[in-house]
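User: Structure tokens for both sequences below?

Assistant:
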Amino acid sequence: MANVTKSRPLSPHLQIYKPIPTMVMSILHRITGAALYFGTILVAWWLIAAATGADYFEWVNWFMGTFIGRLVLFGYTWALMHHMLGGLRHLMWDVGYGFDKHFSTKLAKANLIGSVVLTIVIWVVAYLIRN
């Protein structure tokens, strides 16, 4: 018997599927979930610095105020907002809504746009309160 699977993949993969918004948002939801694990280490580091003493706490605050620190915090904020909105989308699916192809595509696009807008709003409000 000839092996007919030798010239084709054993299972579908990204070279076969055309990326669609819902698939991309699903992948981003997993990536942001993993990123939040590492971002939570930053929150723990900040809290540990606060408990350790004023000098170390000031150093951590200085580092988070640098360009790299703020870029990491901005990315953490976006990951948090994106994952939260993705979680709400999944919750909606869990209760049986939003399975229509066109609606789920709109919801996936809204997830990305909403996460970017919320991140920018959070940072603008934070800067306005700070000054």
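Moving on to the next sequence.
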Amino acid sequence: MLIVALAEQIRTHARLTAPLECCGLLLGQGSTITEACPARNVHLSPQTHFEIDPQALIDAHRAARAGGPQVLGYYHSHPRGPAEPSATDRAMAAHDGAIWAIVGQDGAIGLWRDNKQGFEALFTEASSR
């Protein structure tokens, strides 16, 4: 699923971006995430929301069509909250089967699948950071 080096990369992005939410793309093949690509958070309220730069999404989908890694999902941080989907995340979710990695305020990472029924927990890291 999410390898240790990628988890550390995402944690570092969250730490460097705080107190704003960081965000990025999870790329790979099948159910294996091989890359975490940071993106600009273009939301008007980045302290409490995230919106991945649309150009980053376009570029990633173009690269996938050309044979590159597929967009498997997204990541973002909750600088003042837990590593689980917030009410805002639940309201904005597309219910498209994408994987969401969420970094909590304590550095723990939760992995979630955005299904038609809502978010399904795939992995939740114990808060030890």
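User: Anything stand out in the second?

Assistant: The helical segments are 4-17, 54-65, 87-92.
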